[in-house]
Amino acid sequence: DIQMTQSPSSVSASVGDRVTITCRASQGISSWLAWYQQKPGKAPKLLIYAASSLQSGVPSRFSGSGSGTDFTLTISSLQPEDFATYYCQQANSFPQTFGQGTKVEIK
Amino acid sequence: QVQLQESGPGLVKPSETLSLTCTVSGGSISSYYWSWIRQPAGKGLEWIGRIYTSGSTNYNPSLKSRVTMSVDTSKNQFSLKLSSVTAADTAVYYCARGAWNDFIFDYWGQGTLVTVSS
């Protein structure tokens, strides 16, 4: 299985801050990567696919980059509704695997 | 707007079989891959497996010996059976629709908590 490792595990930030989350794959996955946002008690929500393509309806303050083994999710200006846990997921091969999550908390 | 809804018992005894159904509304179940994903409390996400509307399946090797999925296109439903459950199978179970390269998930159910306990 491809292991996905996110860092940091949690980050404290203020409204308006720029936040960057990284995700590393244990082997190259080209651009076969997605990012999800999950709020407590809710299902994950797809934010980005193909490493950098914004899902329809997702605000443009979210962006993704990277290829191969190293990827980043950036929130350019953190909004109150962005406090949540974020997961990366490799979409390269079976079984699909997720990172352990990064919790974005209010500073 | 596509909606997914999981249903099934919230409590299953150890060694028994967990059975869940996902009902798709607002769109056809046809021509998509449909997955089950689970999340133990306070932990990350684990993909269990997927089924295409033709009935073709792919399972996570870690669970393959215990998983069976089926689809009923006439009812716009697909189902999960997980046999010989233990406390380690206690989790919120989500159903989800495959998207893009069919390996990611664009629509999710709200999730249903299944507890394995005697």
List the keywords.
heterodimer, A: 107 residues, mainly beta, B: 118 residues, 7-stranded mixed sheet, 4-stranded antiparallel sheet, 0% helix
Overall pLDDT of chain B: 97
Query: What's the helical proportion of residues of chain A?
Result: under 10%
In whole angstroms, the N-to-C terminal distance of chain B is: 39 Å
Strand content of the residues of chain A, in percent? over 45%
Net shape of chain A? globular
- Please state the CA-atom Rg of chain A, rounded to the nearest Å: 13 Å
3D shape of chain B = globular
Could you please describe the fold and organization of this structure?
The complex is a heterodimer of chains A (107) and B (118). Chain A has 107 residues and is mainly β. Helix content of chain A is 0%, strand content 50%. Chain A has strands at 4-7, 10-13, 19-25, 33-38, 45-49, 53-54, 62-67, 70-75, 85-90, 97-98, 102-106. In chain A, strands 2, 4, 5, 6, 9, 10 and 11 form a 7-stranded mixed β-sheet that branches. Chain A is globular, with a radius of gyration of 13 Å. The termini of chain A are far apart. Chain B has 118 residues and is mostly beta strands. In chain B, 0% of the residues lie in helices and 53% in strands. Chain B has no helices and 11 strands. Chain B has strands at 3-7, 11-12, 18-25, 33-39, 46-52, 57-59, 67-72, 77-82, 91-99, 104-108, 112-116. In chain B, strands 2, 4, 5, 6, 9, 10 and 11 form a 7-stranded mixed β-sheet that branches. A 4-stranded antiparallel β-sheet of chain B has the order 1-3-8-7, with no helix packed on it. The A-B interface holds A 1, 32, 34, 36, 42-46, 49-50, 55, 87, 89, 91-92, 94-101 and B 44-47, 58, 60-62, 94, 96, 99-101, 103-106, 108-111.
